[in-house]
């Protein structure tokens, strides 16, 4: 008998060639997420099994698995032989001592000499006679014992199904560049797109020395919190200080944010194209702040040709916060550091600026030179 982690994945949309592609990506991502842990990953009839790991680290490994997109559910349990005695030895380890229970048996191997009902009855009976404080309840048991009889004399025994993240394995839907700030929204946006299978690389703009090391460290921290989901281990940063100073010096104050955002999009697109990424991702949500009006979004879109994915576009702040808490980024996001967007923030940002007005103001700047200069400040931080 050996402790294992059983991993089940969504099969609904897995047909023909897609299936191999999906399974291969999932296996690759599981391997990546378990880097540094001794283990073996095997396929067993439509599931993955993690075996041969240090059993004292089972929880850590299960936690990592719980973050991998494409995993529908998982269980920590045992791989045993399929003789009743062997299965029972594992059942004793997962079954409760008191309260009500039910044994649920599934036979993937139909030639097994007993039916599922017979196995459940035999195992349940033994457990009852050994543990006097237990009782059977087949309708609403407090605990389950699951037995899954597989081919080649194998069985899996476990006590619960834990929810996985669901979604598609990262890497099965192309690649994009997430513009990540230190705020609440963008990490959530990155999580959502990675869940749909997008590889999400990370780009952060800073305005050192107006923004400090603490602000950058916060983003690094957020990127680290995202990496179990995204499998991405690098953060790119770009300095936009000079751009902000130029905008501040030469253009209408009410357009500060609008103009900075256009520069961010241009720079992001240049980096994305260089790296073969095919979309940009932001944490924008319609009408959340002055720059996220329809006019604001249009003005940013107007300077790029790559699609801009905004998965939070229809979300309330409360819904975003709820997600941020669930994925574990919220506490870090609310640490008090300044984002570059808040430097030189005008008192009254324009909410519905017209494109020709924006372009007129922007015409006062050396756009290409400023973009090139910013691109020269690219840093790549290993997380
Ligand atoms: P967030 O909580 O993600 O910071 P927000 O509601 O504060 O979002 P803005 O600050 O206007 O809104 O930013 C909108 C989006 O622009 C962010 O979600 C993010 O994708 C991008 N963005 C903003 N600031 C930065 C930055 N310093 N570096 C990279 N991207 C940024
Ligand atoms: Mg922000």
Main sheet specs: 9 strands, mixed
Structural class: alpha/beta
CATH superfamily of the largest domain: HUPs
What's the CATH topology name of the largest domain? Rossmann fold
Tell me the overall shape: elongated
CATH class of the largest domain equals Alpha Beta
Radius of gyration, in Å, reads 26 Å
Helical percent range? 25-40%
The arrangement of helices and strands along the chain is EHEEHEHEHEEEEEHEHEHHEHEHHHHE
Q: What is the strand tally?
A: 15
Task: Provide an overview of this structure.
- The chain has 383 residues and is an alpha/beta fold.
- The chain folds into two domains: 2-163, 2-Layer Sandwich (VC0802-like), CATH 3.30.2130; 175-382, Rossmann fold, CATH 3.40.50.
- The protein has 13 helices and 15 strands.
- The chain has helices at 16-33, 58-66, 84-94, 116-130, 185-195, 213-230, 241-250, 256-274, 294-301, 317-327, 330-333, 355-362, 367-375, and strands at 2-9, 40-44, 47-51, 71-81, 99-107, 134-136, 143-149, 154-158, 162-163, 175-179, 199-206, 234-239, 280-281, 308-309, 379-382.
- The strands form two sheets. Strands 1, 2, 3, 4, 5, 6, 7, 8 and 9 form a nine-stranded mixed beta sheet that branches. It has a six-stranded mixed beta sheet with strand order 14-13-10-11-12-15, with helices on both faces.
- The mean pLDDT is 94.
- The structure holds adenosine-5'-triphosphate and magnesium ion (MG).
- Magnesium ion (MG) binds at residues 181, 183, 339, 341.
């Amino acid at each position: 008998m050996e402790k294992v982690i059983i991993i089940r994945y969504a099969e609904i949309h897995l047909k023909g060639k897609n299936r191999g592609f999906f399974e291969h990506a999932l296996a690759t991502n599981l391997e990546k997420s378990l880097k540094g842990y001794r283990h073996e990953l095997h396929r067993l009839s439509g599931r993955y099994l993690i075996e041969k790991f240090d059993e004292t680290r089972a929880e850590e490994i299960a936690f990592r698995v719980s973050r991998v997109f494409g995993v529908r559910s998982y269980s920590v349990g045992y791989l045993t032989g399929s003789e009743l005695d062997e299965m029972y030895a594992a059942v004793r380890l997962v079954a409760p001592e008191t309260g009500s229970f039910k044994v649920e048996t599934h036979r993937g191997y139909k030639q097994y000499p007993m039916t599922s009902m017979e196995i459940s009855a035999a195992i349940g009976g033994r457990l009852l006679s050994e543990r006097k404080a237990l009782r059977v309840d087949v309708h609403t048991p407090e605990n389950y014992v699951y037995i899954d009889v597989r081919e080649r004399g194998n069985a899996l025994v476990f006590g619960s199904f834990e929810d996985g993240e669901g979604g598609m394995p990262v890497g099965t839907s192309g690649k994009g560049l997430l513009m990540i700030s230190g705020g609440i929204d963008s990490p959530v946006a990155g999580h959502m797109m990675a869940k749909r299978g997008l590889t999400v690389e990370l780009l952060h703009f800073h305005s050192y020395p107006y923004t400090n090391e603490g602000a950058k460290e916060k983003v690094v921290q957020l990127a680290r919190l995202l990496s179990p989901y995204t499998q991405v281990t690098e953060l790119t940063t770009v300095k936009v200080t000079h751009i902000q100073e130029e905008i501040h010096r030469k253009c209408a104050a009410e357009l500060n944010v609008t103009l900075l955002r256009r520069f961010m999009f241009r720079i992001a697109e240049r980096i994305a194209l260089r790296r073969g990424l095919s979309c940009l991702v932001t944490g924008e949500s319609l009408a959340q702040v002055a720059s996220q009006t329809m006019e604001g979004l249009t003005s940013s879109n107007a300077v790029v040709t790559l699609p801009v994915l905004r998965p939070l576009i229809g979300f309330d702040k409360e819904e975003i916060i709820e997600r941020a808490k669930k994925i574990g980024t919220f506490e870090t996001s609310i640490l008090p550091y300044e984002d570059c967007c808040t430097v030189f923030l005008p008192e009254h940002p324009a909410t519905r600026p017209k494109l020709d007005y924006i372009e007129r103001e922007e015409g006062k700047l050396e756009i290409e030179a400023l973009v090139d200069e910013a691109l020269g400040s690219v840093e790549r931080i290993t997380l």
